[in-house]
Amino acid sequence: MTILIVFLCIALLIVLISVFKVNAFLAFLVVSFLAALTLGLPPAKIPSMIEKGMGDVLGSLAIVIIAGAMLGKLVAESGAAQKIAKVSMDAFGPKYIQWAMVLTGFLIGIPLYYGIGFVLMVPLIFSVVYRYKLPALYIGLPMLAALSVTHGFLPPHPSPAALVIQFKADMGLTLLYGLAVSIPAIVIGGPIFSRTLKSIPVSPLASFSAKDLADEDLPSGFKSFFTALLPVILLAAASFFPLILNADSKILPYILFAGHPSVVMLIVLFVATWLLGVSEGKKIKDIMTIYGDAIKDIALILLIIAGSGALKQVLTESGVSNQIADYLQHVQVEPLFLAWLIAAMIRFCVGSATVAGLTTAGIIVPLMEQTHTNPNLMVLAVGAGSLMFSHVNDAGFWMFKEYFGLSLKDTFKSWALMESIVGIVGLLGILLLHLIIA
């Protein structure tokens, strides 16, 4: 009976968000309180339980997500993203322009949040399309595939970062595994798949064109690339050095301190403030305004993550998570595939990759612990599933349709199929990686 209650509550969450268009944070709260009451938890303790769940997940993530948003906003506003695109395209030339777009989307996708990156990339895509007279989807889809994969797979993006915390994974290792899985997903979903779409007509709206900065106003290539890649460099180093140092090494505690995701993001933010801000002639006051705007951009994401923490806490306190895990253990399915499938189904119903990933976490954590599944790979499996089945209830679907001026049919043939391809290829890469490191 308790398992039935949980699935009805999750179904209600999906209906509230997708059918009645209720704000995802409010939907999580309503369902969390309802689930707690119907599962028989003491009513007097439910509010504090909800608050604890929200506090636990935000306490671990707030610095990472907020600092990441500030970094992404500065990368965009300073012209560093534009510089990365320009250097990449100049380096690859017209013959290999698709790979320049992939590299640009990947590098910009690491620090930038998805919505910001999408809006920023589309004008760059069409500037290349007009310059080289090439089909828009052939040029644009590789870049957007890279952007989508970084959003779904790689910390410090909100959903992967939250999953790392909930699964007690290692953010550095998750990032390294994610990079390995991302490459084939991007290549197949981007450059290879986009070659089949050259004949689809595109009518971009002029109102979506962004104003480029003049070349002389852009930061240097070193500053732009170094700032965008610094989170990856530091997180990777933090995972590598403990493997080669002795446990009693005097510098190990300092490396572990500096390699903590919150500290890494603060270090990167301070470096970016100097390299892309102060050294480029920007006043601290203006930089702080950019950072303030960044917090507004991701406030709702933080609330959704907090709401997911509340539901997870209810499932944990009621003991139903363990019951679900016990039930799922008897299902003869690889846990990584099961997590991917659950995330994909919720994504199809809700439309939000973030909501799909975080909702799946509350269901799959006990099973992961009982089966001793690698938590780093579980983060990636849920992330890959959360990218599946993008359709009319996904904001990204409509952004792609309107920015490229596509018909509904052609949006399904291009965007929706690309998202599913990267999700499936990502899963296959994760399962292969599981065989290698098991």
UniProtKB/TrEMBL annotation:
Its main location: membrane. It is found in: Cell membrane. The chain crosses the membrane at residues 27-44, 56-76, 96-129, 136-154, 174-193, 225-245, 251-277, 298-316, 336-365, 377-400, 420-437. InterPro entries: Glcn_transporter. GO terms for cellular component: plasma membrane. It is a multi-pass membrane protein. GO terms for molecular function: gluconate transmembrane transporter activity. The keyword Membrane applies. It comes from the Bacteria. Keywords: Cell membrane, Membrane, Transmembrane, Transmembrane helix, Transport. NCBIfam families: gntP. PANTHER family: GNT FAMILY GLUCONATE TRANSPORTER, HIGH-AFFINITY GLUCONATE TRANSPORTER. Belongs to the GntP permease family. This is Gnt-I system high-affinity gluconate transporter. The lineage of its organism: Bacteria, Pseudomonadati, Bacteroidota, Sphingobacteriia, Sphingobacteriales.
